[in-house]
């Protein structure tokens, strides 16, 4: 029998979200029913609401979540009822060409639950990133559940499900930041500060945070930035070069997803340095770079998908580092809210007032 729960739904492009009844099926083969304990309000959810990702309305929003497995379907062996899990949107298939080449973090055939959640009138919902966790319960593919130590607070754990993991992974997994490196991060929201934290964890010598908001730059310092540049009043490229002996940074993480900030990242890196794009562009954006500069500067221009993370490997490790006091993930939680506060949380996000608002059930 389907569960009737309350969830946050976006019915149309740009419309205010609403809390309404959602019907969640019992899990079928390969699926898991998860009782959500906390879910972060991520910028990706705002993209869904504004029609920046697709037009498959209505959307059941929310994806940065942690909770407890309530039931599983047939053929599920990795998780069981009672397990505390972080949800992820990359359920590794094990069979695609990336998985078979030993690169499951690039899995090209990730999957979601087969059954659909609906509104009370039977209207099919599109769950954000295949999760839909602004709801008391959600149905996912069992592979989207990663079991972790339940000692971590759910409001903190859920943030590893998207933004914070994307940032940490952009620095460590994609950018390959190592001991003594110089790193610049352009855009210091949740993802950018995750990259700052990842660079610090990897042993970077110099970590330069760039943003147009002094409040965000102060947050970046709390996560480990050694220097900050307000690019509203100073030239970001010149500032990064000045702070790196005139050379540019070994790794530059672009955490905004705009052509103008990508160009800053490109010209702010050292010769043979690496640019990592982890900010998400919109479909109409175009990039224009001199091809001779692309050739002449060498190095790597990379895109980071979900921080190139492997949830089964990275989530438990990062949770353990947090519980050991080495990874202050709790600093990302600006406030805890209820389901009815999500629309207001989007407004705070747009105004740069919070790193993360987290819905707590």
From TrEMBL:
Keywords, comma-separated and alphabetical: Metal-binding, Oxidoreductase, Zinc
Domain of life, source organism: Bacteria
InterPro entries: ADH-like_C (IPR013149), ADH-like_N (IPR013154), ADH_Zn_CS (IPR002328), ER (IPR020843), GroES-like_sf (IPR011032), MycoS_dep_FDH (IPR017816), NAD(P)-bd_dom_sf (IPR036291)
Cofactor(s) the protein needs: Zn(2+)
Enzyme class: oxidoreductase
PROSITE patterns documented for this protein: ADH_ZINC (PS00059)
MF terms in GO: mycothiol-dependent formaldehyde dehydrogenase activity; zinc ion binding
SUPFAM superfamilies to which the protein is assigned, alphabetical: GroES-like (SSF50129), NAD(P)-binding Rossmann-fold domains (SSF51735)
One Pfam family hit: ADH_zinc_N
EC number, UniProt record: 1.1.1.306
All copies of domain Enoyl reductase (ER), residue ranges: 14-359
Family: Belongs to the zinc-containing alcohol dehydrogenase family.
Designated name of the protein: S-(Hydroxymethyl)mycothiol dehydrogenase
């Amino acid at each position: 029998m389907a569960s009737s729960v309350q969830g946050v739904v976006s019915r149309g492009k740009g419309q205010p979200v609403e809390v309404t009844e959602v019907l969640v099926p019992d899990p079928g083969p390969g699926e898991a029913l998860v009782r959500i304990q906390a879910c972060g309000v991520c910028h990706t959810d705002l993209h869904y609401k504004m029609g920046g990702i697709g037009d498959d309305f209505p959307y059941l929003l929310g994806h940065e979540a942690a909770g407890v497995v309530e039931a599983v379907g047939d053929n599920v062996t990795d998780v069981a009822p009672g397990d505390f899990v972080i949800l992820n949107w990359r359920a590794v298939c094990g069979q695609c060409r990336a998985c078979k080449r030993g690169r499951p973090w690039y899995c090209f055939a990730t999957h979601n639950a087969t059954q659909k959640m609906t509104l009370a009138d039977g209207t099919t919902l599109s769950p954000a990133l295949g999760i839909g966790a602004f709801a008391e319960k959600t149905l996912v593919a069992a592979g989207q559940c990663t079991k972790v130590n339940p000692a971590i607070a759910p409001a903190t754990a859920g943030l590893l499900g998207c933004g914070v993991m994307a940032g940490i992974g952009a620095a460590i997994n994609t950018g390959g930041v190592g001991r003594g490196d110089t790193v610049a991060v352009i855009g210091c929201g949740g993802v950018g500060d995750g990259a700052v934290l990842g660079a610090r964890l990897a042993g970077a010598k110099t970590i330069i945070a760039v943003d147009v908001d002094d409040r965000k730059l102060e947050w970046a310092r709390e996560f480990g930035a050694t220097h900050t540049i307000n690019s509203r009043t100073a030239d970001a490229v010149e500032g990064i070069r000045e702070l790196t002996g005139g050379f540019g940074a070994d790794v530059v993480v672009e955490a905004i997803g705009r052509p103008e900030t990508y160009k800053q990242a490109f010209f702010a890196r050292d010769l043979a340095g690496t640019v990592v794009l982890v900010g998400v562009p919109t479909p109409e954006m175009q990039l224009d770079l001199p091809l001779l500069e692309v050739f002449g500067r060498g190095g790597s221009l990379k895109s980071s998908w979900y921080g190139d993370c492997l949830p089964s490997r990275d989530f438990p490790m990062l949770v353990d580092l947090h519980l050991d006091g080495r990874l202050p993930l709790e600093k990302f939680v600006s406030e805890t809210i209820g389901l009815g506060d999500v629309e207001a949380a989007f407004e705070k996000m747009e105004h740069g007032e919070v790193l993360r608002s987290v819905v707590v059930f």
